[in-house]
Structure to design on (199 residues):
Protein backbone atom coordinates (compact mmCIF):
# COMPACT_ATOMS: atom_id res chain seq x y z
CA UNK A 1 0.00 0.00 0.00
CA UNK A 2 1.22 3.51 -0.79
CA UNK A 3 2.42 5.25 2.33
CA UNK A 4 -0.11 7.49 4.03
CA UNK A 5 2.03 10.62 3.85
CA UNK A 6 2.56 10.36 0.09
CA UNK A 7 -1.09 9.59 -0.54
CA UNK A 8 -2.24 12.52 1.56
CA UNK A 9 0.10 14.97 -0.11
CA UNK A 10 -1.38 14.06 -3.45
CA UNK A 11 -5.01 14.04 -2.35
CA UNK A 12 -5.53 16.79 0.23
CA UNK A 13 -6.58 20.24 -0.87
CA UNK A 14 -5.65 23.13 1.34
CA UNK A 15 -8.07 26.01 1.69
CA UNK A 16 -6.86 29.36 3.01
CA UNK A 17 -10.15 30.11 4.78
CA UNK A 18 -13.86 30.17 4.06
CA UNK A 19 -14.00 33.94 3.62
CA UNK A 20 -11.24 34.01 1.02
CA UNK A 21 -12.87 31.16 -0.87
CA UNK A 22 -16.25 32.91 -0.86
CA UNK A 23 -14.68 36.13 -2.09
CA UNK A 24 -12.71 34.52 -4.90
CA UNK A 25 -15.44 32.06 -5.87
CA UNK A 26 -12.88 29.25 -5.98
CA UNK A 27 -13.75 26.27 -3.83
CA UNK A 28 -10.64 24.19 -4.29
CA UNK A 29 -7.22 23.79 -5.81
CA UNK A 30 -5.99 20.88 -7.86
CA UNK A 31 -4.08 17.96 -6.37
CA UNK A 32 -1.05 19.01 -8.42
CA UNK A 33 -1.22 22.49 -6.91
CA UNK A 34 -1.17 20.94 -3.47
CA UNK A 35 1.92 18.89 -4.26
CA UNK A 36 3.71 21.91 -5.68
CA UNK A 37 3.17 23.97 -2.55
CA UNK A 38 5.32 21.58 -0.55
CA UNK A 39 2.84 21.56 2.34
CA UNK A 40 2.44 18.45 4.47
CA UNK A 41 0.46 17.63 7.58
CA UNK A 42 3.08 18.85 10.00
CA UNK A 43 3.22 21.69 12.55
CA UNK A 44 4.74 23.89 9.81
CA UNK A 45 1.35 24.03 8.09
CA UNK A 46 -0.70 25.11 11.09
CA UNK A 47 -1.38 28.48 9.47
CA UNK A 48 -3.90 26.76 7.21
CA UNK A 49 -7.44 27.57 8.27
CA UNK A 50 -9.25 24.70 6.61
CA UNK A 51 -8.58 21.41 4.94
CA UNK A 52 -10.51 19.68 2.19
CA UNK A 53 -10.05 16.11 1.03
CA UNK A 54 -10.34 14.90 -2.55
CA UNK A 55 -13.01 12.34 -1.76
CA UNK A 56 -14.76 14.18 1.03
CA UNK A 57 -14.32 17.67 2.36
CA UNK A 58 -13.93 19.90 5.37
CA UNK A 59 -17.30 20.43 6.99
CA UNK A 60 -18.44 23.50 8.87
CA UNK A 61 -21.51 21.72 10.24
CA UNK A 62 -21.13 21.69 14.01
CA UNK A 63 -23.75 18.98 14.50
CA UNK A 64 -22.14 16.37 12.25
CA UNK A 65 -20.82 13.25 13.94
CA UNK A 66 -17.08 13.12 14.45
CA UNK A 67 -14.91 10.14 15.29
CA UNK A 68 -11.31 10.48 16.41
CA UNK A 69 -8.81 7.80 15.44
CA UNK A 70 -5.45 8.52 17.03
CA UNK A 71 -2.42 6.45 17.86
CA UNK A 72 1.27 5.72 17.90
CA UNK A 73 3.78 6.99 15.36
CA UNK A 74 5.74 3.74 15.71
CA UNK A 75 2.91 1.84 13.99
CA UNK A 76 3.42 3.65 10.69
CA UNK A 77 2.93 1.57 7.52
CA UNK A 78 2.31 -1.79 9.21
CA UNK A 79 -0.14 -3.75 7.08
CA UNK A 80 -1.83 -5.13 10.19
CA UNK A 81 -2.45 -1.60 11.45
CA UNK A 82 -4.06 -0.60 8.16
CA UNK A 83 -6.35 -3.61 8.59
CA UNK A 84 -7.24 -2.65 12.17
CA UNK A 85 -8.02 0.93 11.17
CA UNK A 86 -10.04 -0.21 8.15
CA UNK A 87 -12.07 -2.50 10.39
CA UNK A 88 -12.77 0.39 12.78
CA UNK A 89 -13.84 2.70 9.95
CA UNK A 90 -15.99 0.04 8.28
CA UNK A 91 -17.69 -0.86 11.55
CA UNK A 92 -18.45 2.78 12.36
CA UNK A 93 -20.01 3.38 8.95
CA UNK A 94 -22.00 0.13 9.05
CA UNK A 95 -23.40 0.74 12.53
CA UNK A 96 -23.84 4.51 12.62
CA UNK A 97 -23.41 5.85 9.09
CA UNK A 98 -20.82 8.27 7.62
CA UNK A 99 -18.76 10.41 9.95
CA UNK A 100 -16.06 13.04 9.91
CA UNK A 101 -12.67 11.69 10.95
CA UNK A 102 -10.75 14.03 13.21
CA UNK A 103 -7.16 13.82 14.50
CA UNK A 104 -3.93 15.77 14.61
CA UNK A 105 -2.42 14.49 11.37
CA UNK A 106 0.65 13.01 13.02
CA UNK A 107 2.77 10.34 11.34
CA UNK A 108 1.63 6.80 12.01
CA UNK A 109 -1.96 5.97 12.95
CA UNK A 110 -3.29 9.50 12.39
CA UNK A 111 -2.20 9.71 8.75
CA UNK A 112 -3.04 6.06 8.07
CA UNK A 113 -6.57 6.66 9.35
CA UNK A 114 -6.89 9.76 7.19
CA UNK A 115 -5.81 7.80 4.13
CA UNK A 116 -8.36 5.06 4.76
CA UNK A 117 -11.16 7.51 5.55
CA UNK A 118 -10.56 9.40 2.31
CA UNK A 119 -10.42 6.18 0.33
CA UNK A 120 -13.90 5.42 1.66
CA UNK A 121 -15.22 8.85 0.74
CA UNK A 122 -15.38 10.17 4.30
CA UNK A 123 -14.54 13.69 5.37
CA UNK A 124 -11.36 14.40 7.31
CA UNK A 125 -10.79 17.24 9.75
CA UNK A 126 -7.26 18.12 10.75
CA UNK A 127 -6.92 19.66 14.20
CA UNK A 128 -3.73 21.72 13.82
CA UNK A 129 -0.95 22.04 16.34
CA UNK A 130 -0.55 25.60 17.57
CA UNK A 131 2.76 27.22 18.43
CA UNK A 132 3.61 27.93 22.04
CA UNK A 133 3.52 31.70 22.53
CA UNK A 134 4.32 31.71 26.23
CA UNK A 135 8.11 31.73 26.05
CA UNK A 136 8.83 28.00 26.31
CA UNK A 137 12.09 26.66 24.90
CA UNK A 138 10.32 24.58 22.27
CA UNK A 139 8.22 26.00 19.45
CA UNK A 140 5.65 23.27 20.10
CA UNK A 141 5.59 22.32 23.77
CA UNK A 142 3.44 19.76 25.52
CA UNK A 143 1.51 22.06 27.86
CA UNK A 144 0.66 24.78 25.34
CA UNK A 145 0.61 22.91 22.01
CA UNK A 146 0.09 19.14 22.22
CA UNK A 147 -2.11 19.01 25.31
CA UNK A 148 -4.57 21.72 24.13
CA UNK A 149 -4.84 20.00 20.74
CA UNK A 150 -5.66 16.70 22.44
CA UNK A 151 -8.35 18.46 24.46
CA UNK A 152 -9.88 20.03 21.33
CA UNK A 153 -9.97 16.69 19.51
CA UNK A 154 -11.58 14.98 22.49
CA UNK A 155 -14.12 17.76 22.86
CA UNK A 156 -15.19 17.60 19.19
CA UNK A 157 -15.24 13.81 18.82
CA UNK A 158 -18.29 11.73 19.65
CA UNK A 159 -16.16 8.59 19.95
CA UNK A 160 -12.40 8.10 20.27
CA UNK A 161 -10.29 5.16 19.15
CA UNK A 162 -6.75 4.91 20.41
CA UNK A 163 -4.65 2.41 18.43
CA UNK A 164 -1.26 2.25 20.06
CA UNK A 165 2.00 0.45 20.59
CA UNK A 166 1.52 -1.21 23.98
CA UNK A 167 5.20 -0.69 24.80
CA UNK A 168 4.56 3.08 24.94
CA UNK A 169 3.72 4.04 28.49
CA UNK A 170 2.73 7.64 27.76
CA UNK A 171 1.82 9.49 24.58
CA UNK A 172 -0.27 12.38 23.33
CA UNK A 173 -2.85 9.94 21.96
CA UNK A 174 -3.41 8.68 25.52
CA UNK A 175 -3.84 12.30 26.61
CA UNK A 176 -6.58 12.59 23.99
CA UNK A 177 -8.19 9.40 25.31
CA UNK A 178 -8.13 10.63 28.91
CA UNK A 179 -9.66 13.96 27.93
CA UNK A 180 -12.37 12.00 26.13
CA UNK A 181 -13.14 10.01 29.27
CA UNK A 182 -13.27 13.21 31.30
CA UNK A 183 -15.78 14.63 28.79
CA UNK A 184 -17.92 11.51 29.02
CA UNK A 185 -17.08 10.29 25.51
CA UNK A 186 -16.79 6.63 24.57
CA UNK A 187 -13.10 5.72 24.37
CA UNK A 188 -11.95 2.47 22.79
CA UNK A 189 -8.32 1.44 23.24
CA UNK A 190 -6.69 -1.06 20.90
CA UNK A 191 -3.18 -2.00 22.08
CA UNK A 192 -0.80 -3.57 19.57
CA UNK A 193 2.21 -5.79 20.27
CA UNK A 194 4.77 -4.98 17.56
CA UNK A 195 6.49 -8.31 18.16
CA UNK A 196 3.39 -10.15 16.96
CA UNK A 197 2.74 -8.31 13.70
CA UNK A 198 4.54 -8.00 10.38
CA UNK A 199 4.94 -5.06 8.05
Amino acid sequence: MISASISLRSSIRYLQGAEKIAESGKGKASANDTMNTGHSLTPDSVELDHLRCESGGFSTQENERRVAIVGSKSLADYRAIYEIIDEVVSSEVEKYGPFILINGGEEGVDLMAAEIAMARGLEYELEPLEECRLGCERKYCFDHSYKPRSERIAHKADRIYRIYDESCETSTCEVTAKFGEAFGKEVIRKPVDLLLIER
About this structure: The longest strand covers residues 159-165. The CA atoms of residues 80 and 197 lie 7 Å apart.
